[in-house]
Amino acid sequence: MKTSIKRTLVAAAISSACLLTAMPTYAEVTANASFTSNYIWRGLTQTTNDAAVQGGIDYAHESGFYAGTWASNVNYGADDIYSYEHDLYFGFSGESEGGVAYDFGYLYYNYDAEAEFDFAEVYGSVGMGGLSLTLSLLAHTEADEGEGQDFGFGQASYVSLDYGTPVLNGAELGLHIGYHQGDFAEAFNGVPDGYADWGISLSKDGFSFAVTGTDLDDTGADAYDNDAVKFTVSYGMDFEL
Prior knowledge:
Elements: H1 9-14, E1 28-36, E2 40-41, E3 44-45, E4 52-60, E5 65-73, E6 84-95, E7 101-111, E8 119-128, E9 131-141, E10 156-166, E11 172-182, H2 183-189, E12 195-204, E13 207-214, E14 230-240
Antiparallel strand pairs: 1-4, 1-14, 2-3, 4-5, 5-6, 6-7, 7-8, 8-9, 9-10, 10-11, 11-12, 12-13, 13-14
Keywords: Signal
Pfam family, one: Gcw_chp
Protein name: Outer membrane beta-barrel protein
């Protein structure tokens, strides 16, 4: 999942939290491309623990408005019809005079037409220094509700707390914890209940190494291993257009 307009490798590896960065003093268009050994979203693999190639294009204006698109291959199982994720998003971000950063927007997740499981979220983040708090709420979905399920606005949510700080030799340490819950979250992720996820990452010069996990129980042998601690290596680049 694409997260805000500044998807660093730290965020790509450990969370879908929105990154709080100051907007440039002019309008700009940039592109990004990355390769990761495992596409992890909110603690869960989106590629059955295989590699992914990802990339996107972003527009940012000095007013704080931004918009963009991002795509990745996905794979949820041998007999699954999903092959790609294509995200569209827009929002507004900035920083107050007191140094409080903010970011809020809308994010649409598009998958193969046969899946009929596209959905959208609205999100908001506040932060100061290296610490940020993010809340994402289900806005709408084309998926059909099952018996006893509620896929209405705000009936699924993801809240996360993230901290990033420079460490030795220009590297950046990232810490993350989040919680995903709601009927839609359970249906989309194929999990029986709400769950917590966590991550620790170290990145430098486009490279990132991350360790992630969840509090999900072992459900037996499968292609997901959602209960296991996972190790991910990624590399990404940004380009001005």
